[in-house]
Amino acid sequence: MFDIGFSEVFVIAIVALIVLGPERLPKAARFAGLWVRRARAQWYSVKSELERELADEDLKRSLRQAQDELRSAQQQLRDSGQILREGAEDLNQRVAAAGTTAAAADAQAAGAQDEHAVPADAPQAEPAHAASPEPAALDHATPPPAAEPAHPDYHGASQPDYRPSTAQTPNDERR
């Protein structure tokens, strides 16, 4: 704090001994020591309060930074959730559209089979070109393949069962 060396303290002590005398010097030394202790205590108090304020400010700054990071993560999650919802809606619409087109194709195929159906009592005559059928004739004779679901995991998916089991485990026997 103050740049006072040993020689300077020794000179001050000799001057104090001459001025105050041997009777009042111990009381003056105690009084000076008391004031030095109070000054140091006050200095350490101010110093510790400044350090606490700086630590509080640093803590507040890190808290604000953490809050900002959490807000940005929350916004990213909201955006991701919205994108997932839109994707799920799109997938549901595709599945619904595939289901309606498959049903329409099945109805059309059933109608086409009814048109080409031959009554059971009618005589079966084979056409002359039956040995080499044309591709167009094969298209009407065979029904179109059944429409598969848009995503195999999505169709008929079931939910897992999270209920606790009643089976006893080896750890239960130890209790």
Describe the fold and architecture:
The protein is an all-alpha fold and 175 residues long. It has a domain at 1-104. It is 70% helix and 0% strand. It contains 3 helices and no strands. The protein has helices spanning 6-115, 135-141, 170-174. The longest helix is centred in the middle third of the chain and has 110 residues, at 6-115. The protein starts with 5 loop residues before the first helix and ends with a helix. Mean pLDDT is 77; it is low at 135-139.
Provide a short characterization of the protein structure:
By secondary structure, the chain is mostly helical. It has helices spanning 6-115, 135-141, 170-174.
User: How many helices in DSSP terms?
Assistant: 3
Number of strands: 0
Derived from helix and strand composition plus strand pairing, the structural class reads mainly alpha
C-alpha Rg (nearest Å): 49 Å
Strand content: under 5%
**Which blocks of ≥5 consecutive residues have pLDDT under 50?**
135-139
Span from first to last CA? Answer: 68 Å
Main sheet properties: none
Helicity, in percent?
55-70%
Average pLDDT number: 77
Shape: rod-shaped
Encode the helix/strand succession as letters: HHH
